[in-house]
Amino acid sequence: MPEFIAIGPPRTASTWLDKVLRGRVGLPAHKESDYFKRNYWRGESWYRGQFRDCPPNLPVMEVCPTYFPLPECRERIARDLPAVKLIVTLRDPVARAYSYYRMLRRMGWEKQTFEQAVARRKDLADCVRRPRERGDPDRGREPQLLALGQFPV
After folding, report:
1. Exposed/middle/buried for 37, CB within 10 Å: 0-12, 13-18, 19+?
2. Residue 100: in which H helix or E strand, if any?
3. Are 91 and 12 in contact (CB under 8 A)?
4. Each residue of 105-124: pLDDT tens digit?
5. Which pTM does this prediction carry?
6. Using CA atoms, how far apart are residues 76 and 71, in angstroms rounded to an integer?
């Protein structure tokens, strides 16, 4: 099981982090197992299996930025891996939103201009909106809460 989890949020250099650490720590074959978000139903043995090929002499780690914004993921991590250390990468919100927009364009999922996409897409607009504007008084405060030892929210 991982000793460290890099939880993101998305578009904050998680792919770079995975590439830099690969071979220096034990990582699953695929960057994002999404266990605590999409694959929790598969159970702990499935999750443990994601790390079966990790070298025994290296610390074990997962990189999965989709865990960051979701309270249920944070609660599951805290309950199932209480000793795990979390790595949070951050980025300027506007640069992060634009990077996300460029990814959407590259994948063919967005055709409009950046301004039009921000006005239309909640996921893109949430990158730059203040937490209280998104309807969650604690959302966006995760780094401060982590520093205070109040994780999960």
Report:
1. middle
2. helix 93-106
3. yes
4. 999 999 999 889 888 888 77
5. 0.74
6. 9
Q: Taking a C-beta distance cutoff of 8 angstroms, is the pair 54, 24 a contact? A: no
The one-letter amino acid at 34: D
Task: Say how far apart CA 73 and CA 44 lie, in whole Å.
Answer: 14
8 A C-beta contact, residue 74 and residue 67? yes
- Which helix (H) or strand (E) is 21 found in, with range? helix 14-21
Q: Specify whether the CB–CB gap between 88 and 142 falls below 8 A.
A: yes
**DSSP secondary-structure letter at 7?**
E
Q: What is the dihedral of CA 19, 23, 24, 30, to 10 degrees?
A: 50
d(CA 40, CA 95): 31
**Number of residues written out for the chain:** 153
